[in-house]
Amino acid sequence: MVKSNDKIEGVIYALPEEIAINILEKNKKIFVKYLPHEPTRKTKVRLEKGKKLYIYASGLNKSVIGEAKIKKVEYLDLNEILRKYKKNLMISESELRLYAEGRELKKAQVLELENPVLYPTEIKVSVPITMQGTYITNKNKKIIFGKNKIK
């Protein structure tokens, strides 16, 4: 559990391998994630410009395979996402529509990424990463990544 005084450094999201490759190798820089709750004015947004998205390929060996820097964070509905970012989505328009089914009017977290890096070797993590994701903080980073050198 992340405490309010913990310094958020980034987030790990589990992704199917082909989506991870789209981000890391095919320059698809728009990441879309429906969260359990839409942000409100009272919600403290934890991810912001400059933080990192660590990419955990869910089909592989429970490993983080790369990272990207978050350039911008927005909360948009499906039509807004397609209008602004259709060409740079991590998945195709039809896949996004399927993913959004029943939530078309709900705001999704949209991360514009930059400087994606595919690690030369996978980095095993020591905790399960769920589809909900896990925040990386100054306190849990060593627990999650172990002795691996992560900046």
Report strand %.
35-45%
Walk across the major sheet and give the strand order. 2-5-4-3-1-6
The number of helical elements comes to 4
- Please summarize the sheet with the most strands: 6 strands, mixed
- The helix-strand sequence is EHEEEHHEEH
**Helix content range:** 10-25%
The CATH class, by name, is Mainly Beta
> Can you tell me the number of structural domains?
1
Terminus-to-terminus distance: 22 Å
- Supply the CATH architecture: Roll
Global geometry: globular
Low-pLDDT stretches: none
Average pLDDT: 87
CATH topology: Archaeosine Trna-guanine Transglycosylase, Chain: A, domain 4
* Number of E-state strands: 6
CATH superfamily: Hypothetical protein
Classify the secondary structure makeup into a structural class.
Answer: alpha+beta
Give me the Rg, rounded. Answer: 15 Å
Describe this structure in words.
The protein is globular. It has 151 residues and is of the alpha+beta class. The mean pLDDT is 87. The chain has a 6-stranded mixed sheet with strand order 2-5-4-3-1-6. It contains 4 helices and 6 strands; from the N terminus they run E-H-E-E-E-H-H-E-E-H. It is 20% helix and 35% strand. The protein has one domain (8-145): Hypothetical protein (Archaeosine Trna-guanine Transglycosylase, Chain: A, domain 4, Roll). The protein has helices at residues 17-25, 78-85, 93-100, 141-145; strands at 8-15, 30-33, 52-57, 63-76, 108-124, 134-137.
